[in-house]
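User: I'm preparing a small set of examples for a lab meeting where we compare how different chains pack in three dimensions. I only have the primary sequence for this one, and I'd like the structure in token form so I can line it up with the others. Please keep the answer compact; I'll paste it straight into my notes.
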Amino acid sequence: MAFSVDVVVVSYNSREQLRGCVEPLVGAEGVNVTIVDNASPDGSLEAVQGLPVHALQLERNGGFAHGCNVGWRAGEARFVLFLNPDARIDPQALRTLCDVLERDPAVGVVAPRILHADGTLDFSQRRFPRLQSTYAQALFLHRLLPRAAWTDEVDRRPEVYETAQAPEWVSGACFLMPRSLLEALGGLDEEFFLYCEDTDLCRRVWDAGYEVRYEPSAVVVHEGGASAPRPSLLPVLAESRLRYAAKHGSRTTAALERAGVGLGALTHALVSRGGRAARDGHLRALKTVVSRSA
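Assistant: Understood. Below is the structure token output for the 294-residue chain.
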């Protein structure tokens, strides 16, 4: 079957990274690049003028999941790659990911080995949120026991990044799916404005009877992989975690998760090393949690 993949890049104020992201892919056989701009004030799409890409300028920022859905629904290729604008993948690595899906129809999502810009490993394999990890992170136990599975959602064991794995979920910075499965699942859940849409999607992939796969022989460089959420986005992250818990857990579990997220916002506000902006961000996240409890 002919190689056919739509690469979907959702941009928001990504003018400085966008051209470098898509330039290695444009013109590659069987690859179509679609850029969806979420109403960026910085005129992001001007950076890719002259390149053979499908550029879609949205009039409003409906969130990352919304932009992804607009992008993949605009194409018709057999496979769809979602790629962050600050990530870089070459055609050979993309072909490697496609080969995984072609060889094994039981795989619903495949993601590459991700490296930071300095060449160090990005711990991109994740575990689904659980109450024990939520409370462990709130109490900073994940820093004391970084290799313990119950303390953290991020798998920080370097050895598991050397061979193919089936993690519970993978970073949304770069992953490939069959179009048919995206259609069956209805795409990404647009109720998540930002964060947890990748967690939710992988959860639904497993629930549908498919596997999430990590493939180390395909390598991607992610410039933003080492960064924590900006303080202004901490309330958005809190909101998304609460939404995920309400969607996938019982009412009791969702209530306990809400308390754990609130505790984490409070403890991080008290001991944050990020200065006033970070403390204010955590306090706004706590306010978000409290308002959801009312």
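A couple of notes for your slides: The chain has ten helices and ten strands. Residues 5-127+153-222 form a domain with the Spore Coat Polysaccharide Biosynthesis Protein SpsA; Chain A fold (CATH 3.90.550.10).

User: Perfect, thanks.
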